[in-house]
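Weekly structure sync, notes
Attendees: PL (lead), two postdocs, one rotation student
Agenda item 3: pending single-chain targets
PL asked that the sequence for the first pending target be pasted directly into the notes so everyone works from the same version. It is reproduced below exactly as submitted, 261 residues in total.
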Amino acid sequence: MKAAVRSFAIAVLAIVPLFASAQEAQPTRWFVQQFNIKPGQQGTFEQLVLRYKAAAQELGDENGWFANSPAVGDMSVYSFASELKTWTQMSDRSDLVVEAFGEQAGQQAAAMAQASVESVQSMVMMHRPDVSIPRSEESPPAEATMMYFITLKPGVGEAWNEYMQNVIAASKATAPEAQWNSFQGGIGSPQNTFAVRVGLTWEEMDSPIKALPQRLVEHFGKRNGERIWQEANEMIDTMETSISHFRPDLSYIPEQAVASN
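Predicted structure, written out during the meeting:
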């Protein structure tokens, strides 16, 4: 069960916004869903998502979503994330197509969902801007996402937060191009989970930035830097990584819809 939760969170956290405001003072909630698609039905499912996107655009819906699919691994998994500004956003949205295009279109969408969707998982995760360095809005849009999903040992939460502050200080001083967004488990995921999302272009993937241990040593000195790195590794129970694609074609971002109108 823990492995399933970890794999799910890795997938869904890869699709939060490409940029997060550096001025963001409070943690934000993200409602995330993973759809497991029946064999050979990816095309049907993508057409279904496009119908919902068209319906949201038609209605001027304020609740957008970011879509993601794996770059490696199981290609039948699609993930979606929406900022959860109010809990009412979690109400049933299955009638969106009916509202926009009528009962017959809604019945067609329901049939497509039944034909293509094997199962759905969901959870709420909390963004942690206090231990993040967001990607600059002047940077090229991220095309790929590196995810590091970490399960911490019990009772190390405060020490981990202190470690992340050291990482921020070292990164700003020795690798100013470094950027990431951090998340912590919320509803539907363990509280001792911590995830780090790095959005990159494919060119940036080919040009790795300075390794984290090197940043710590250069900023804090060899002895202290190595100690900080070792202590952090001792806090970690497990860690998993993934690479995924952002799917703008399957995403609905209300600001874009407004601009297109």
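Discussion points:
- The longest strand covers residues 117-127.
- Residues 42-59 form the longest helix (18 residues).
Action: rotation student to compare against the earlier draft before next sync.
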